[in-house]
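Fold this: Carbohydrate ABC transporter permease
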Amino acid sequence: MNRKPTAGWQVFNGFNIIFLTVLSLAMLLPFLNVLAQSFSSSEAIVNGKVLFSPVEFTSINYRYVFSDASIWRSFGVTVYITVVGTLINLIATASLAYPISRQEYKGSKVIVVMVLITMVFTAPLIPNFILMKSLHLTNSLWALMLPGAISAFNFFVMRSFFLQIPSELIDSGRIDGCSELRMIWSIILPLSKPVMASLGIFYAVSHWNTYQSALYYISKPTLWPLQVKLRQLIQTDDISIDPNAAQFSGLAHMDPEGIKMATIIIATVPIILIYPFLQRHFVKGMMVGSVKS
């Protein structure tokens, strides 16, 4: 029998809708403003005419960004550390979480406590830098991928997921003669697609937004990721336009704000586009991996 919602529930539901709508607009409107400025003329941007729709529509800002070799190089660095770094993260996290989730591993409690300690106490910056330098990882992309190979939070999420895999399933694989590697490849990993997709998104977003680590460990401009390049554009207005170039003819005095906004859009949109393709696995992975029976 369907019950009619009470007045209190209707008020509560209405408040939630209003609150979530306002919260969504607060997140969406700044992005729309940046998008509108990236397609607006320099005069409109300087005079503050741009709000949420382009004024005097132009694609010159994106043409400049796409013609700048340094931005493309930084974009390539970011894509590389995102793809390779995420693979390293998933392999390392699964390699630690799986054996710790098995009861036959006697040292699991000690390892869990050690990982938990890293969530409470983190190493200071100077010792980290000295360690990276002694390992000859400075001015290397490995410095952006290896130090954070395993996230403690993601480790506990993946371990919780592995704990829910029935031991009988693993025992049956062993009875059939599967080695540990074969069992992980043929049984565990196919069952772990939801949690892998979920944690893969977390790791990929973290690598895509790499900023502080690059400032600390990378001094070569050729190895700067996109976020550091964007910081350089914003802080130093390091934007030079060749007035003799055909695609920028007559726009030598173009305002750099439009170029900055176009770079922000290019740095943001690719990682946003990944989520819809993994949304189903993402939701399932978070629900399954966060509850322990």
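The first helix runs from residue 7 to 38. Residues 75 and 226 are 5 Å apart (CA to CA).
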